[in-house]
Amino acid sequence: MNLQIERDSVVVLQGVFVEGDGALRGSASVFFNMAIAILIAGVLCGFGFVLFKFTRFYSDTIYAAFFVVLLISCIVIRRVSMARSVDSIVNDIDA
């Protein structure tokens, strides 16, 4: 039995409370995050293709260059996120 009662954008479905607006905001955020990830992947693939096509580098060289770039970006992102999390913890303790 699928009981659904609608009251002012709030849906009660078999005893589970679901707020309609919150679900839409989350889906939009996931959609835009995925769109950005696909765009970045396309740019990286296009850059690799152009590098391979016009410079005649070996594919192993291009893979190694991408690996180094991704490794450096992971290290930078980790350092930034650790610094921000420490600042956030200190601000929460002080508050």
How helical, in percent, are the residues? over 70%
The fraction of residues in strands falls at: 5-15%
Order of SSEs, N→C? EEEHH
- Number of beta strands: 3
Report mean pLDDT, rounded to a whole number: 78
C-alpha Rg (nearest Å): 23 Å
> Given the structure, what is the number of helices?
2
Shape category: elongated
Which structural class matches the secondary elements? alpha+beta
The poorly predicted ranges are 6-13
Keywords:
single chain, alpha+beta, elongated
Provide an overview of this structure.
With 95 residues, the chain is of the alpha+beta class. It is built from two helices and three strands, in the order βββαα. It has helices at 20-55, 59-94; strands at residues 4-7, 10-13, 16-19. The longest helix is centred in the middle third of the chain and has 36 residues, at 20-55. The relative contact order is 0.05.
Quick overview:
The protein is an alpha+beta fold.
Question: How are the SSEs ordered, and which strands pair?
Answer:
Elements: E1 4-7, E2 10-13, E3 16-19, H1 20-55, H2 59-94
Antiparallel strand pairs: 1-2, 2-3
